[in-house]
Write a structure and sequence with these properties.
The chain is mainly α. It is about 55% helix and about 5% strand. It has helices spanning about 15, 20-30, 35-50, 55-60, 65-75, 80, 105-125, 160-175, 175-190, 195, 230-250, 275-290, 295-310, 315-320, 325-330, 335-345, 350-365; strands at about 205, 210-215, 225. Helix 2 packs antiparallel against helix 3, helix 8 packs parallel to helix 17 and helix 9 packs across helix 13 (about 295-310). The radius of gyration is 25 Å and the shape is elongated.
Length: about 375
């Protein structure tokens, strides 16, 4: 079997110790699945295998529908049922109870996808004798395409105008140069957390005011160019030309590296960890007493602003890097400058206030010799 050095087997001990599961993950990599996808499958599969304890391999390889549904039910009701109390469906001898918090519907859905594909693999490779898939595609006993997990359409929180004004005022006037740039660029470009933190020096096209979101950092796995508005460009360049340059010169680091750098006394000038933006937003959340504020809030806020400004949905989808825009992409992905011009024109009035705040703040800082 062709092993892979890019899979952290030590993080998934039950998978690593199980040849069938290990081969399944290797196969995912050979099919070009992204590392984060492989990690999610490995974590879910590791938990599934752990639930069987010391049972023989045949127990889970040949598990039937009831065993897998009971496992999913145990995940769903772990907190409510508690240790030692039977599931309302009963428990077969080859599945043990799980302790811990109740799993969210989204987590259950991820487990369902991982287990379906794992058993597809076991059947396809004839490792499973029973050719009947143990997880039905629809609800049990119904001829329907509806899934095993009922997903709830939860709307993202969008800050009301007066709350958004408070957030913006704090970010512009109170945050460090780097944090201000990170928040305003995340908002302006509707960037996801990883897309923001993993930006590099050469991803910024200053003359055209464009940021390149590389395929390996994008959720869709596709590269895209994101246009910046004047306020986003101003905040980024102020950080880029001052604080970032000072860090690089002080610690003699290479200019061509991560765009946003650590300011900590322990790792000054080093690349940021993926969770660094979480820390920035967590501090904002505490300071402003806004428990609803999350790293994804700025993306939702910007996309909502674009819709309010009358930007067509297909353009918003392209700008946001959604995966289901193939038809639109054929016409628009080659023209990021033109896309940026359309968005700037549509949001000029919405962005004017933020631009004035930032201009006044940076001007005030310059007058004090900062």
């Amino acid at each position: 079997m062709n092993e892979r050095d890019d899979i952290r087997w030590d993080l998934y001990p039950h998978v690593a110790a199980t040849p069938h599961a290990r081969a399944f993950l290797v196969r995912l990599g050979q099919f070009g699945r992204r590392p984060k996808t492989i990690d999610a499958y490995a974590r879910n599969l590791n938990r599934f295998l752990a639930s069987f304890g010391e049972a023989p391999v045949e127990r889970w390889v040949e598990a039937d529908e009831g065993a897998l549904l009971t496992y999913l039910d145990a995940l769903r009701h772990a907190r409510r049922t508690g240790a030692g109390r039977p599931s309302r469906w009963g428990r077969p001898e080859n599945v043990v109870s799980l302790a811990g918090a109740r799993a969210a519907d989204a987590t259950i859905a991820q487990h369902v996808v991982a287990l379906r594909q794992f058993y597809d693999y076991l059947i396809r490779t004839r490792l499973r004798r029973d050719g009947v898939h143990p997880l039905p595609r629809g609800r049990v006993g119904e001829a329907t395409s509806r899934g095993l997990v009922r997903t709830r359409g939860r709307l993202p929180w969008i800050a009301p105008a007066e709350v958004w004004e408070r957030i913006v005022l704090h970010v512009v006037t109170r945050e460090t140069t780097r944090n201000r740039a990170m928040v305003l660029v995340a908002y302006d470009g509707a960037l996801r957390r990883e897309e923001l933190v993993r930006l590099r020096d050469d991803d910024y096209d200053r003359p055209r005011a464009l940021l390149k979101v590389r395929a390996e950092t994008s959720k869709s796995g596709r590269e895209r160019w994101v246009p910046l508005s004047p306020f986003g460009q101003r905040a980024l360049e102020h950080y880029f030309d001052r604080q970032r340059r000072a860090l690089l010169e002080a610690y003699t680091f290479d200019d061509h590296g991560p765009l946003f750098l650590s300011e900590s006394t322990r790792n000054p000038g080093r690349p940021l960890a993926p969770g660094a933006f979480n820390d920035v937003v967590e501090a904002l959340r505490a300071t402003l007493s806004l428990p609803q504020l999350h790293p994804h809030t700025f993306r939702h806020q910007r996309l909502t602003a674009l819709k309010v400004a009358g930007v067509p949905l297909e353009v918003i989808a392209l700008f946001a890097g959604h995966a289901s825009t193939e038809t639109t992409r054929l016409y628009l992905h080659l023209a990021p400058v033109e896309l940026g011009a359309k968005i700037r024109a549509a949001t000029r009035e919405l962005d004017a206030h933020l631009e004035r705040l930032l201009q006044d703040q940076l001007g005030r800082g310059a007058s004090h010799g900062q």
